[in-house]
Amino acid sequence: MKLKYDFVTNSSSTSFVVLGYNFTEDEIRNNEKLIQKLFEYWENQNPDKPLEEFHRLKKDNLHDLFFSYLRNYTKLDYSSLQFGDDFAVGISPFNVGDNETYSKFKERVRNEINKMFEPEKGKEINPHEIQEGWYDG
Fold this sequence. Notes:
Number of strands: 5
Order of helices and strands: EEHHHHEEHE
Strand content: 15-25%
Distance between the termini: 24 Å
Radius of gyration: 16 Å
Number of domains: 1
Largest sheet: 5 strands, antiparallel
Number of helices: 5
Helix content: 40-55%
């Protein structure tokens, strides 16, 4: 039997499980600190492209830019949820350390998400279990 620790697929069904948080595109677009991180990332990847290209991506294709940033600069797992309007961001339960308690795991996830998203003081993000599955039958 083959084990897969990312998306689990069987024919046309898909599942995604993390301890994390669901972000909407608006939450990402309206977070100035995160947009600045995305811009710096994009600028490093595309030094010769005009600024308008970043603004077009931010407006029309935010999920690709966001996922690329997460893949390259964080320890977070991510998925566009079934209808593509929200993003699930977190850490898979398969990545719990051997001697890590659930409390410590949850704290590690909270720290990673808040480091990436940098919410306003007092509005820290508390992760929750996200279990998504869908069938494209």
